[in-house]
Amino acid sequence: MAKAASKLKKTVAKSKSSSLVRAKAAAPVAARKALTKSPAKPAPKAAKKPAVVKSPAKPAADVTKSGKWVFTFGDGKAEGKAGLRDLLGGKGANLAEMANLGLPVPPGFTIPTSVCTYFYAHDKSYPPALKAQVEKALDHVGKLTGKAFGDAKNPLLVSVRSGGRASMPGMMDTVLNLGLNDKTVEALAELSGDRRFAYDSYRRFITMYSDVVLGFEHHHFEDILDTFKDSQGYTLDTDLTGDDWVDLVGRYKDAVARETGKDFPQDPHAQLWGAIGAVFSSWMNARAVTYRRLHDIPESWGTAVNVQAMVFGNMGETSATGVAFTRNPSTGESKLYGEFLINAQGEDVVAGIRTPQDITEFARKESGSDKASMEVAMPEAFKELTKFYTLLEKHYRDMQDMEFTVEQGKLWMLQTRGGKRTAKAALRIAVELANEGLISKKEAVSRIDPASLDQLLHPTIDPGARRDIIATGLPASPGAASGEIVFSSDEAAKLQADGRKVILVRIETSPEDIHGMHAAEGILTTRGGMTSHAAVVARGMGKPCVSGCGSIRVDYGRGTMSIGTRTFKTGDVITIDGSLGQVLAGRMPMIEPAMSGEFGTLMGWADSFRRLGIRVNADTPEDARTAIKFGGEGIGLCRTEHMFFEETRIRTVREMILSEDEQSRRAALAKLLPMQRADFVELFEIMKGLPVTVRLLDPPLHEFLPHTQAEIEEVARAMNTDPRRLADRARDLAEFNPMLGFRGCRLAIAYPEIAEMQARAIFEAAVEAEKRTGKAVGLEVMVPLIATKAEFDLIKGRIDSTAQSVMKETGRKLAYQVGTMIELPRACLMAGEIAKTAEFFSFGTNDLTQTTYGISRDDAASFLGTYVAKGILEIDPFISVDRDGVGELVKIGVARGRKTRPGLKVGICGEHGGDPASVAFCHEIGLDYVSCSPYRVPIARLAAAQAALGKAVASQA
Ligand code: ADP
Ligand code: MG
Ligand code: MG
Fold first, then answer.
1. 76 lies in some domain
2. From the CB of 176, is ligand 1 less than 6 Å away?
3. Residues taking part in catalysis
4. Would the CA dihedral through 481, 483, 489, 492 be positive or negative?
5. Span 412-442, pLDDT tens digits
6. Best exposed site among 35, 259, 274, 523 by fewest CB in 10 Å?
7. Last residue of one domain, picked from the residues 591, 617, 641
């Protein structure tokens, strides 16, 4: 990981504004925070009723009564514990838990979320008892550390850290070194014997506090620092001496006084309450509010505040700060993975300013870095870390993401949480944890977010293709993508809306780039490590990302990126390979993903738990093969009109539609018959005896009509008629409302010979396929858009008689069922009647949603978004099934159908079949199967397993 990072270092060293604390410095940390939510929980968007820990803010009540507003931790014990996450927030609860486990956690205390609730319920004031409790806790921390808050000789310094139940960007950033002022900084210098360290700490505190509490932004300080460095001829922060920092601190304070009209607060207690107030206030800032809305986090949750004694990673060469994952968050490999920086504090390590070093020798060798690993540079602290991470992972039974600091050789643990990971890593970790006996197979299955599997179902670059590698950076997020270069997130969003595929290229990304990252196929940054904002966010989104590609020079102004002598501009196509960290010129051939390794293993476990069958919507042999590969258990919907639309056939189809009499229609149909039959033979052969539901023709008629003059003339020639007459006929057939017009079974009612031809093609193909494979086709013929039993019976009669003829002609017996697609409210209500003759039901939830809501899906774009935004609809009902309305109709249909015909086979097809929340609904109401698009089969398999496991297996927070 340090190879490209060392290039990065050079870039950074040259870059003018290389101050340690910069405007963007907080972004990567904020991003790690944003993505802490355990991937085991379904993405809120994918699930209508997300399994995200979502419970009303009830713990606040009893605690309010108890009047306990402060929970201390440190010295091997704590008043809190991991189970009190709702009250103490994730960070506070886990700090308490670590303290209880006897890990070295700097002592401190948590002000719980109940105070935040109180704060907003009482006009932004605190519970009266809070102040005294905070004072008492400060004394306690002072005793444990042998220091005193505000003491001019031996001052206790603290950090103030926010943290709610779910981690959330938009909340106040951490303030370190609080308690420093003009007096205590001298005491710190005295005690440490290091003036440079003391003033470095002080200026960090001033910048952080000013930024997050006083609203005086970082860049002001950066400008002052840059001006100062220029005047001294310095390039690096490390060039500054202790006296330089003293000088700068003076300039910083002057700037604050000038710009805010108030002196920088010197009273440590005023500083502390300022910071606490800022944390609670940040709960309601615009960014936090938006984030909560997007992620379904109730406002009532509130945030907690953690106040904790400082430990210093910036006390020279025996001190350091770092982040580590107990397993590799990108691949899932069971090896400690992380980065650290010697003589650094807080966020330095993820800020992408200095190049972080590898923690283990193994990683260092792999990355080829020439900088010592922690294992070598700090063997004692490393040994401790190894002990702790093993313990933490066992304790939490999940991969952990930890923060630590080494202060003059002593290791301190500052945070632990369930680590964010790629889908690939999530699978490997879940399978390995189960194999290690730490979790059960059921738990492993329920920990994977079904929607995240999408990440693994993306193509990768054909290994046989010639690669024109233009640059190599860090393999920050796996997968590959090609697209046009864009340099801004707005541009990325705009082009994507126009249907273009883009690669977002940035020097580095920040939370303001989220929309562009969403829009892009992949992300390329020239700065930042494996834990940078771009890397973390891309992994979360399942998009390929190459970060820290230091050899690329980006010129936003010109819209170019150059590597040596090669220059690429906006609109040029590149490919990124996020698994290898490569940037390639041009578009690359991609290959389809396969299910193997842990993916296959976990899917196997999922299959053993699920009850629901998983079929696939497949119209072509290619779809069918993909379906089989991904574990589809049959075809739930084969749309025959797709076979009609093929370019070579459409003319014949038009002939058929525009025929004015049965005779010419039959002539056209006769031409179509062999083509249809050949399609079915291939499909049936691939499916080797698995069930295949073939739906009779269901296009809105207008989709087949010739539109241009040239098309009309072409058809007229083929039909030997006058083009004008044909144009008239086409006009006659035009409809005001095709979706509710002459379509579905209505076509077969008006022109039974169409259904007859299709039935013949199907049955003849079944005979042929059985001959070839030796297996009887699991044939199900489906009639679309039925509203009445009479419609169905008429068409079923034609189908049955055709089957009889084919059996007679071929001398073979054919087993088959004739059923219907239930996609009209009337059909749901009349299901009892319809089931008298229909042998199976498949709910066409797309049309059923359209007809239940009276919303045309194709026209919904202009208003549905507003409905969702205004909260009228919780989620687009075309994405996740509307349980209340459409769902009720489905339930009625199932109940009435099965009452008439016990054991009636019932499934759904349509987009909903691949939506985890809809799959869960189908499981709950006792359907037999869902049918979805081929690439969603693994998602549906896993969602079905989780639905079957229900809430019995709660995922670890
Ligand atoms: P975030 O939620 O953004 O990760 P944190 O509160 O965890 O914010 O802290 C930001 C950085 O400051 C982290 O690197 C953390 O380890 C460090 N930090 C926080 N508190 C202390 C402390 N008391 N002593 C030393 N470093 C600290
Ligand atoms: Mg943190
Ligand atoms: Mg339909």
1. yes
2. yes
3. 533, 909
4. negative
5. 999 999 999 988 899 999 999 999 999 999 9
6. 259
7. 591
What sign does the CA torsion over 711, 716, 722, 728 have?
A: negative
The answer to whether residues 470 and 564 belong to one domain is yes
561 in the same domain as 485 = yes
Cα–ligand 3 centroid distance for 844 (angstroms): 6
Task: Please name which ligand lies nearest the alpha carbon of 346.
Answer: 1
CB burial of residue 711 (10 Å; 0-12, 13-18, 19+): middle
Ligand number with the minimum distance to the CA of 745: 3
Specify whether 303 is located in the same domain as 328. no
Give just the sign of the alpha carbon dihedral 348, 350, 351, 357: positive
- Please report whether residue 840 resides in a domain: no
Measured distance CA(275)–CA(177) in Å, rounded:
12
Q: What pLDDT is recorded for position 834?
A: 98
Mean pLDDT in residue range 164-192: 92
For tokens 């031809």, the residue is: 757
- The answer to whether residues 170 and 297 belong to one domain is yes
- The whole-number pLDDT of residue 63 equals 54
Which ligand has the nearest atom to the CA of 306? 1
**CB half-sphere exposure, 64, CA atoms < 13 A:** 15
Q: Is residue 161 within 6 Å of ligand 1 at its C-beta?
A: yes
- Answer whether residue 635 is part of any domain: no
List the CATH number of the domain containing 490.
3.50.30.10
Q: What is the extent of the structural domain holding 510?
A: 460-591
Give yes or no for residue 320 CB within 6 A of ligand 1.
no
Domain boundary among 421, 446, 478: 421
Whose CA is closest to atom 13 on ligand 1? 346
Confidence of residue 535 (pLDDT cuts 50, 70, 90): confident
Q: Mapped to the 3 state alphabet, what secondary structure does 486-506 carry?
A: ECCHHHHHHHHHCCCCEEEEE
Residue nearest to atom 4 of ligand 1 (CA): 29
303, 360: one domain: no
Domains held by the chain: number: 3
Q: Is 403 in the same domain as 477?
A: no
**858 bridge partner residues:** none
pLDDT (mean) for 903-932: 94
Would you say the CB of residue 315 lies under 6 angstroms from ligand 1?
Answer: no
Give me the torsion for CA of 147, 149, 155, 161, rounded to 10°.
100
- Relative to the CA of 403, which ligand 1 atom is closest? 16
User: How confident is the model over 694-738, as pLDDT tens digits?
Assistant: 999 987 777 777 878 888 888 888 878 888 888 888 888 888 888
pLDDT band at 39 (very low <50, low <70, confident <90, very high): very low
Q: Are residues 368 and 300 in the same domain?
A: no
Same domain, 382 and 478: no
pLDDT tier at 61, thresholds 50, 70, 90: very low
Residue in this structure with the two tokens 């820290």, named with its chain if needed = 548
